[in-house]
Amino acid sequence: MDLKRPLAPSFIGSGTLTSPRDMVRALETLENTAYRFVVDGNCVSEGNAALVKLMMDDESATLIVNGCLFLNIASYRYLDFETIEDDQWRFVLHADGSRLELVALPDTEENSGDSRPHLLSEEITGDLDALIALDDDDEED
Q1: I need a labelling partner for 121 at 20 to 30 A (CA). Which of 34, 55, 58, 135 fits?
Q2: In angstroms, rounded to a whole number, what is the distance separating the alpha carbons of residues 4 and 94?
Q3: Cα separation of 45 and 43, whole Å?
Q4: Dist CA 115 CA 111 (whole Å)
């Protein structure tokens, strides 16, 4: 019996993700973040934001407004992630000539609970919608 089959990659602690499904799965672990938006090597904006919406939509923008992050995976080509000092996670989303750097902030009494914006339903379009639905079905078992 030949049990050889192609294996899916494994990323433990760090890696580069190109699959939109994997990017969504990594980013849905985020809540509160410190962000830096870098264009052509120059930081144009930085601050803190709570992840409010995670989507894949060719017609929507990634927005950071009023302390809220509306993150569109379709805005980026790939994602690097790694653990950094003190067990913090760093995510870098790469686009053409720009990158969005996100560092997960630990929950504190000040930024946890009802004061945090709630994650809205995902608006995923295309084939990714079916893939995410499969993940949701797995969780019900």
Answers
A1: 34
A2: 34
A3: 6
A4: 7
> Domains of the chain: which residue ranges?
15-140
DSSP code for 82: E
Contact 114, 44 (CB under 8 A): no
Query: 44: left (phi > 0), else alpha (psi -120 to 50), else beta?
Result: alpha
**The predicted structure's pLDDT at residue 87:** 79
Beta partners for residue 36, in sequence order: 46, 101
112: Cβ–Cβ under 8 A, 6 or more apart, which residues?
none
Convert the pLDDT of each residue in 21-73 to its tens digit.
999 999 999 999 999 999 999 999 999 999 999 999 999 999 999 999 999 99
